[in-house]
From TrEMBL:
Pfam family name, one: ABC_tran
Coiled-coil stretches: none
Gene transcribed to yield this protein: ybhF_2
Record-stated family: Belongs to the ABC transporter superfamily.
The protein, known as: Putative ABC transporter ATP-binding protein YbhF
Length: 317
């Protein structure tokens, strides 16, 4: 449904002569290739400045690739951007609203541009109810999170075949993040093809079938969410009854270390059973999972990518 191949973009800061422009150039994307299947939810995961928005701006036909291409339903996103936009619902990272309007006036205006606004009004009202947003409020009085909700309603009410969502939960509180995740899963069940960019692992984990991990403009890996979960390193902080029990864990063969007299950390990759077997022999006073930093989750793939590149280089030297 979505095909991105060899997509590359160099941003040039200055317009001056070639030399000057090159010295001021920033790699936006370098040879990015992935695809999203019909009915699939695909996550583009990466830290700030990784290139997620740059990929999305190519898909929406706002940027012309320096090399490679982006296609949706076999249409070229740059050459045929008007046709592409007709069946894509797009939520930008930052949205400009006509602030003098109410939420309702804005949505009616947008719906009117896409056809008969009455067709969209049922979905609009249902979404507003799910997201608990009063559409009668003037936009200028809305908080950041409320404006994000308005953006989500605007994107989803049109019932487009393909949804492209750039950091959709930014500004939403945890309760609303959950509501949003449910909305995405509902749309997936209705057969939509969805691409979500995010730097937050949990929302990607809950919604996506596959994930592309992007960093510094390069796609480090594309993995199924199951594989990512299995390979994810998890660190636990465990408080035991006695120092002897803490010692027992450190000597159990697990990847573990002391962080206090009665406290240890244990790092697990994949299977939890070896840890559970050891814990059955001790008395646990407290058991905490350290938050997995996104950096940590995708560094595993990034490091692997670099290792592959290194071995290719060495084999050519
Ligand atoms: N218009 C621009 N001009 C120059 N450089 C740009 C421009 N837009 C993006 N960049 C650069 O391209 C790189 C990728 O930016 P991009 O906005 O795609 O990242 P992102 O992954 O969406 O980040 P974030 O999570 O912060 O939104 C960054 O180094 C950024 O500084």
């Amino acid at each position: 449904m979505i095909q991105v191949k060899g997509l590359s973009k160099i941003y040039t800061k200055a317009r001056g002569k070639n030399k000057e422009a090159i010295s001021n150039s920033i790699v936006g994307l370098k040879d990015v290739t992935f695809h999203v299947r019909l009915g699939e939810v695909f996550g583009l995961l990466g830290p700030n400045g990784a290139g997620k928005t740059t990929v999305i701006r190519h898909l929406m036909g706002f940027l012309k690739p320096d090399a490679g291409f982006a296609r949706i339903k076999s249409l070229d996103c740059w050459e045929e951007s008007k046709e592409v936009k007709a069946f894509v619902g797009y939520l930008p990272g930052e949205m400009n609203f006509l602030k003098e309007m109410s939420g309702l006036e804005f949505l009616n205006l947008m719906a009117g541009m896409h056809g008969n606004r009455l067709v969209f009004s049922r979905r609009r009202d249902a979404l507003a109810e799910h997201l608990d947003l009063n559409l009668k409020q003037p936009i200028k009085k809305m908080s950041k999170g409320m404006k994000q909700k308005l953006g989500i309603i605007n994107t989803m009410m049109l019932d487009a075949e393909v949804l492209i969502l750039d950091e959709p939960t930014s500004g939403l509180d945890p309760l609303m993040q959950k509501v949003f995740i449910d909305l995405v899963l509902e749309e997936k069940n209705r057969g939509k093809t969805i691409l979500i960019s995010s730097h937050m692992f949990p929302e990607i984990e809950r919604t996506c079938d596959r994930v592309g991990i992007i960093r510094a403009g390069k796609l480090a890996a594309v993995e199924g969410i199951q594989k990512l979960r299995q390979e994810q390193r998890r660190t636990f902080e465990i408080t035991l009854e006695t120092p002897e029990q803490a010692q027992l864990i450190c000597e159990s063969g697990l990847k573990a270390g002391r962080i206090g007299a009665n406290q240890v950390f244990v790092e697990i990759q994949g299977d939890m059973n070896p840890l559970l077997k050891v814990l059955a022999q001790v008395q646990v006073k407290d058991f905490l999972q350290r938050m997995t930093e996104l950096e940590e989750a995708f560094m595993q793939f990034y490091e692997r990518g670099e290792a592959v590149e290194q071995s290719i280089i060495s084999s050519h030297v």
